[in-house]
Amino acid sequence: MKKIILLIGLFFGVTNIFAQFNLKSGDLLFQVSKSTKLSDAIAEVTSGVDSVNYTHVGIVSIENNKIFVIEATTPNVRKVIIDTFLNDARKINGKPIVAVGRLKSKYFDIIPQAIKNAETYLGKSYDYVYSPDNDEYYCSELVYLAFKNKNGKPIFKSKKMTFCDEKGNMTAAWIQHFEKYKAPVPEGRKGTNPGDMSKSKEITILYRYFD
Q1: Is residue 206 scored above 50 in pLDDT?
Q2: Cis status, amide bond into 154, omega within 30 of 0
Q3: Can you name the CATH fold of 2-208?
Q4: How far is CA 21 from CA 31, 101, 167, in A?
Q5: Residue pair 82/69 in contact by the 8 Å Cβ criterion
Q6: Other C-beta atoms within 10 Å of 25: how many?
Q7: Regarding beta strands 28-31 and 98-103, do their DSSP bridges make them parallel or antiparallel, or are they unpaired?
Q8: What is the dihedral of CA 200, 203, 209, 211, to 10 degrees?
Q9: Distance (Å, whole) CA 181 – CA 101
Q10: Which of 29, 55, 88, 112 would staple 39 via disulfide (CB 3.0–4.6 Å)?
């Protein structure tokens, strides 16, 4: 009986201990991170699905009936147990502000390779200057590079990045951030962010832990 239950869990996904929802490998977890200078700066210039300012995204990987999340975070790309990822989120009434996005069925067959792709970046440094050319990686960039179609092209779209607020003004937080790293602000360069990715037509938001 125990073996049967295990097989059912592997087929349908694994139930998270925090909620009755069956996660599957390849699910994307969109998170509003705990308040830091960096996460607050990201929230100022991004807007996600349902007008939630998601600041981070990770990839679910289920291994031996355990749930892990692969994420590009400070200081580097890592793989952590799901509890760690959820505990790193900001909370509403004790519930983590995290939403689950699942790829549309036409992309299911690329998920195993996407997990392998993401794992090749483990240990790489976080990209504080959001450049595509420096062998450092930010959260949505990792997802963008991991999920590719059979022709090797990313399934998610990049767009011109902005570090300006709704009024079109560069925020003080971002000016200070790039001055700290002695790097130009990559305003207008192609890139990604977790907010835009949460609204992508390639996924469906299936669950919110904070509802």
Answers
A1: yes
A2: no
A3: endopeptidase fold (from Nostoc punctiforme) (3.90.1720)
A4: 16, 12, 39
A5: yes
A6: 18
A7: antiparallel
A8: 70
A9: 33
A10: 55
Exposed (0-12), middle (13-18) or buried (19+): which is 129, by Cβ within 10 Å? Answer: middle
Which three-class secondary structure state does DSSP give residue 164?
Answer: strand
Residue position matching structure tokens 């200078």: 37
Length of the chain: 211
Token duo for residue 114: 């996407």
User: What single letter denotes the amino acid at residue 172?
Assistant: A
pLDDT per residue as tens digits for the range 144-197: 999 999 999 999 999 999 999 888 999 999 999 999 999 999 999 999 999 999
Alpha-carbon distances of 131 from 61, 70, 135, 171, 200, rounded to whole Å: 26, 20, 9, 19, 22
- Domain positions in the chain are 2-208
> Using CA atoms, how far apart are residues 158 and 203, in angstroms rounded to an integer?
15
Residue with tokens 């990201």, as numbered in its chain: 42
Cα separation of 24 and 131, whole Å?
Answer: 30
